[in-house]
Structure formats: C-alpha cells, structure tokens
C-alpha cells in the first residue's frame, strides 16, 4: 500500500495539467511495452497500445482474446481539474503593481483562490511551431505567485456580500511584480524583459499559449495516522491514477481492456478532447481496423457491448455539515470505492442511471475479488448535484456506472481523500478489467 500512495502523491504533485498527465501516462505505458496505436499496422490478442488526442487526452488498450465486437471493459476518468487560466492578453500594470489577467475554469469557490501560493503550468507555441513548456512557482526556494485580498480592517462592505459575490471573477488576477519607478508601465516592461530573456516568450506569444494557474506545492499525507491525502486536483486524478495503474498492472484479458483519461469534464466534456465528442469512437475504429475485418457495424457493436466504470469521485459525508446529506445514502472516507447509480441534480437531471442487471454483475465481481465498496449519491435530493462522463459513454448503448473515491472539500484548491479508498479503487478497477 505504501508504494501506491507514495507514487500517487508524486503523480498528482508533478502533473497538475492535462498535458502533464498525458505525458506521464505515455512514459509509464511505454516503459511497460505499450506502443503508439498510429505506429502499428496490425494487432493481435495481447498487444498493448495507446493513442493521444491533442496531447490532452489518452486512450490505452490491452487487446483481449475475445472478438472485439463483443465489447470492452473500459475505465474512464478525467484529468482536468478546476483552476484559473491566463487570458489571451493577460499582462497589465495598475498603480505600480503588475498583474496577469485570468479566467476561472470549472466550478470553483472564487474566495478559496486568494492569498494562496500559486504556480503557472502550461505551454506556449510560437509562430514557427516551436513549443515552450512552463512550470513556474513550484520550487520551495524560488518565487511563487498569488492573488491579493483586502485587509479585514476595511472589509466591512465586502463582508456584507455573499460568498459568491465578494470576490469577482475579474478580480482573480495574479500578482507578478512591482513598478518602483516614475515611468508608466515600467513594471510590465520589466516582466516582459524577464519572460523574453529567460523563457524566450514575447507578449504576443500569449495569443497561442495554454497556461493554467494551479496551487503550488506538493500533495501530502494528512493526519497523525497518515491515513489521508491532501492535495490539488484529486478530482479526478485520484481515479485517473488508479485507473491507469490498474490497466498497466494487468497482463492478460479475455475482453479487451481500455483506459480513457479525458479532458474537459469540468466544463461539460466539450470540445475535441472531451467525452462528448467522437474521440472514443474514432480511436476504437482505428483499433478495429488494425485487428482486421473492419466495418462500421463492428465498431458500433464493440461500443454497445462494452462495460464501463466512469471512474470519478463522489462527495464524502461531511460531519460538520450533516444537514446537506442523506447519511444512509452518502459515501464516507475510509469505506471503500464508491458506486454511484446515478449522478445529475435534483430530479436526476443530466444523469446516467445504471441498470440494476449491471450493478448485480459488479457486486458479484467485487465480492469475488474481496473489494469493499459502498453505494451512494452526492447529497440530499433538493440540494444539488453534478455530472460525469457516464452519460456520454451511455450514448453508445454500453452499460456504465460511476465508480470512484470519496472526496472531502471537493473542488477546493486542496482536497482530501482516504488512503484506504485509493487502494480500494485500484483493486476495484483491476477486478473489473477481468470481469466477463
């Protein structure tokens, strides 16, 4: 268990963006003999391949003994997390302070992002096609970034506002430096000079950049018993890591095994790298073609006959806010992997409601593998809810259910999980990949 948790902490500490997660997944897979799908011409049972989508999503396969048209066992998790993104024209100076202008991504409580050490991760593409990778503000003995807030002594009017109002989205701007001269915009010019000399980035290069602002620093063990993990992006990299390692530790399967690490879930799975696209169908078509006897019908049968665990987190019961939860139907830290029959909100809006036949099959699989699990939903019916990628997989007709790790303080800059649940999720995923 210790190695898995240490590896997990390293993974989420070092990989805080989709691109970083995909790059790490490719490295881990290739070290175990996985080949790039596009570099192959023919595949057979036992072959291991992967395909990336714009470097922000990745799909991996172990080809099974059974005909692909009979379906796959799929683990699907997302590798994007709530954060701040730099705007296309981010740099400006105001009254002697230089800022970077941001736009928040996903569901955040804006007030949680002020006066924390923040880091800048991302890529810049120049007009000549060259790429510059950035990771600034992470070194303990180096600089960091932050968003300022007003002092309590003069915050009387601010404190009268609701939590959703007192920090505006347009005020989540990153402090970058100072202008200590009489020259207007000298501070901005100094920052641009550093960017060009040290990183070869000019101001216009931000037009073709993808730079994410994330909490700085490493994830850590939480509590005197070392039985919890606190860190950024555990929604949903706790399920991404365990899904990926479950696949990589699997050697032979009857039904083809698949792991999808996808982008854009936090904003509705939109775009070419999200699950609400033809990404999965296109890559499966390439796989089927290399297995021989390609047909559109075979691709459709493969997807329709597949089983999928939508490997996503669930809200953990919070004892300090019990009025929000139906205690008997809530997931608890330290009680094992969570199966969530339906997500959505209130009247199951936006949900993928798993079929009981499939749940019974999973119960049998978990019991035979001695995996402890819990069944839960997010909160009380009228409180709210959320969605996952499950409904986009169900679009193909496959059997799918959400299965993941309970998280306390979900979507905060630092989230809390149980080490037992992390191990339980990995064991669940490994058992599922072998399920007939």
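-> sequence recovered:
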């Amino acid at each position: 268990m210790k190695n898995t948790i240490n590896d997990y902490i390293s993974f989420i500490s070092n990989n805080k963006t989709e691109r970083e997660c995909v790059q790490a997944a490719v490295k881990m897979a290739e070290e175990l003999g996985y080949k790039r799908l596009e570099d192959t011409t023919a595949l057979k049972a036992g072959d291991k391949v992967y395909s990336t989508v714009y470097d922000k999503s990745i799909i991996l396969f172990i080809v099974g003994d059974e005909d692909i048209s009979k379906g796959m066992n799929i683990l699907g998790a997302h590798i994007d997390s709530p954060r701040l993104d730099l705007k296309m024209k981010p740099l400006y100076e105001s009254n002697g302070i230089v800022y970077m202008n941001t736009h928040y991504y996903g569901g955040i409580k804006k007030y949680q992002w002020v006066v924390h050490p923040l880091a800048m991760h991302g890529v810049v593409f120049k007009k000549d096609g060259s790429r510059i990778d950035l990771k600034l503000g992470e070194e303990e003995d180096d600089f960091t970034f932050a968003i300022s807030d007003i002092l309590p002594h003069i915050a009387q009017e601010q404190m009268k506002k609701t939590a959703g109002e007192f920090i505006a989205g347009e005020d989540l701007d990153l402090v970058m430096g100072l202008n200590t001269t009489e020259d207007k915009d000298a501070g901005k010019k100094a920052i641009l000079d550093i960017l060009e000399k040290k990183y070869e980035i000019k101001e216009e290069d931000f037009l073709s950049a993808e730079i994410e602002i994330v909490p700085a620093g490493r994830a850590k063990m939480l509590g005197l018993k070392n039985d919890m993990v606190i860190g950024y992006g555990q929604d949903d990299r706790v399920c991404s890591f365990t899904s990926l390692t479950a696949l990589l530790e699997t050697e032979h399967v009857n039904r083809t095994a698949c792991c999808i690490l996808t982008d854009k879930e936090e904003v509705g799975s939109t775009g070419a790298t999200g699950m609400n696209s033809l990404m999965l169908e296109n890559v499966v078509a390439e796989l089927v073609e290399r297995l021989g006897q390609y047909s559109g019908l075979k691709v459709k049968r493969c997807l329709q006959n597949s089983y999928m665990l939508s490997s996503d987190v669930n809200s953990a019961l919070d004892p300090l806010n019990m009025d929000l939860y139906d205690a008997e139907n809530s997931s608890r830290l330290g009680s094992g992997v969570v199966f969530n029959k339906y997500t959505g909100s209130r009247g199951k809006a936006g949900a993928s409601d798993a079929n009981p036949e499939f749940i019974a099959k999973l119960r049998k699989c978990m019991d035979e593998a001695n995996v402890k699990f819990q069944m839960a939903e997010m909160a009380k019916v009228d409180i709210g809810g959320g969605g996952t990628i499950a409904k986009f997989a169900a679009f193909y007709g496959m059997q799918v259910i959400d299965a993941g790790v309970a998280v306390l303080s979900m979507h905060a800059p630092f989230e809390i999980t149980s080490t037992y649940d992390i191990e339980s999720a990995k064991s669940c995923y490994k058992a599922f990949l072998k399920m007939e």
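The longest strand covers residues 83-94.
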